[in-house]
């Protein structure tokens, strides 16, 4: 039986994506990264800088991640010990008198910030035309150590982001009061202010969430009015292939002058976030994607979010997606 495609959408978008956390990659280490239907190898040289190259040696096709190592500031192939630096240039062939001019491997633009490692990706494989975005009003020194989460989900990234503006599901799935959303376009990005409340500890907790959706691989949410202390959640949606997606989340809780308050607040936010996340995951992995869903006046800005998301699909497919939405 022919397998049908679950989503009538392109699998990948262009932009910046988080592919790991700095603490996962000590000096001299390498790590296989499987994203966008490809395999990369990420490595940190002795100078502390991170590089990402395609995980295939151009010599005879062996994989750097299958037994390779880091030598100085290059990744070394396990088969014949050819070495390549962060730019993709071959730096050493131990048995050759001359390095062939074509001895290169495809290298990718990488930036390390906020304790996270970001890769720029587009279909053409070209360098980015803009810098890695910034998280506004955020200084990591004002926050405690982050808590990190990584999920592998059978879902398209657009479905994950739609969840943020799907107001009725907060009541139906999570038992919250239905939030109120206010939208503000900001160039290519989208800002959403969400007023929400839920009953916990015998009382009603009210909060304001400030979403800044810059692109699928780089968006975040400030919790400036948490009941105890502010928090920030960074989110990066990174496709693995046409069926599965990595969703990486980083949660910071702001430090408090009151002893143990930030730790208690952090535990509460993490518990609440993971509770709602796993409730959503049960639905995400089995739901179908409807190109033209039948919506009512209380459903929120589902189609608006889809139109916003479609601008990040690779240029060849963007126009058809926008027309379908």
What characteristic shape results from the CA principal axes?
A: globular
- What's the oligomerization state? single chain
* Biggest sheet architecture: 7 strands, antiparallel
Poorly predicted tracts of residues: 316-325
The secondary structure category is alpha+beta
Rg result: 22 Å
Helix content: 10-25%
Q: Give the amount of beta strand, in percent.
A: 25-35%
Mean residue pLDDT:
90
Q: What is the terminal separation in angstroms? A: 30 Å
Instruction: Tally the beta strands.
Output: 18
Instruction: Give helix and strand order, one letter per element, not per position.
Output: EEEEEEEEEEEEHHEEEEEEHHH
Number of distinct helices: 5
Order of strands, main sheet, comes to: 12-18-17-16-15-14-13
Write structural notes for this entry.
The protein has 325 residues and is of the alpha+beta class. 18% of the residues lie in helices and 34% in strands. The protein is built from five helices and 18 strands. The chain has helices spanning 157-165, 167-172, 261-284, 302-310, 315-324; strands at residues 15-21, 30-35, 38-44, 50-54, 69-71, 74-76, 83-84, 90-92, 107-108, 110-113, 116-121, 147-153, 180-186, 189-200, 203-215, 218-223, 231-239, 245-253. The strands form four sheets. A seven-stranded antiparallel β-sheet has the order 12-18-17-16-15-14-13, covered by helices on one side. The protein has a four-stranded antiparallel β-sheet with strand order 2-3-4-9, with no helix packed on it. It is globular, with a radius of gyration of 22 Å. The protein starts with 14 loop residues before the first strand and ends with a helix. Residues 316-325 have low confidence and may be disordered.
């Amino acid at each position: 039986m022919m397998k049908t495609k679950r989503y009538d959408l392109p699998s990948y978008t262009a932009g910046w994506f988080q592919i790991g956390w700095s603490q996962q990659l000590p000096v001299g280490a390498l790590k296989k990264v499987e994203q966008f239907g490809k395999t990369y190898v990420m490595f940190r040289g002795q100078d502390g800088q991170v590089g990402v190259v395609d995980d295939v040696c151009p010599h005879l096709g062996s994989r750097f991640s299958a037994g390779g190592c880091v030598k100085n500031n290059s990744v070394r192939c396990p088969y014949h010990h050819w070495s390549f630096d962060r730019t993709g240039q071959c730096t050493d062939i131990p048995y050759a008198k001359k390095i062939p001019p074509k001895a290169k491997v495809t290298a990718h633009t990488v930036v390390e910030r906020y304790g996270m490692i970001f890769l720029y990706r587009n279909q053409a494989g070209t360098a980015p035309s803009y810098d890695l975005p910034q998280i506004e009003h955020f200084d990591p020194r004002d926050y405690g150590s982050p808590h990190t989460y990584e999920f592998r989900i059978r879902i398209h990234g657009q479905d994950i982001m739609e969840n943020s503006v799907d107001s009725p599901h907060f009541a139906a799935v999570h038992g919250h009061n239905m939030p109120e959303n206010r939208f503000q376009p900001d160039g290519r990005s989208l800002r959403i202010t969400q007023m929400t409340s839920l009953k916990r500890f015998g009382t009603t907790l009210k909060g304001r969430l400030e979403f800044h959706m810059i692109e699928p691989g780089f968006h975040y949410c400030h919790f400036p009015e948490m009941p105890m202390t502010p928090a920030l959640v960074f989110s990066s949606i990174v496709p693995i292939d046409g069926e599965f997606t990595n969703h990486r989340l980083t949660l910071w809780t702001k430090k408090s002058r009151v002893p143990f308050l930030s730790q208690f607040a952090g535990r509460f936010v993490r518990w609440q976030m993971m509770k709602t996340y796993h409730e959503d995951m049960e639905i995400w992995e089995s739901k179908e994607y409807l190109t033209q869903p039948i919506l009512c006046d209380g459903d929120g800005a589902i189609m608006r979010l889809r139109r916003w998301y479609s601008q990040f699909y690779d240029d060849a497919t963007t126009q058809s997606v926008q027309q379908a939405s």
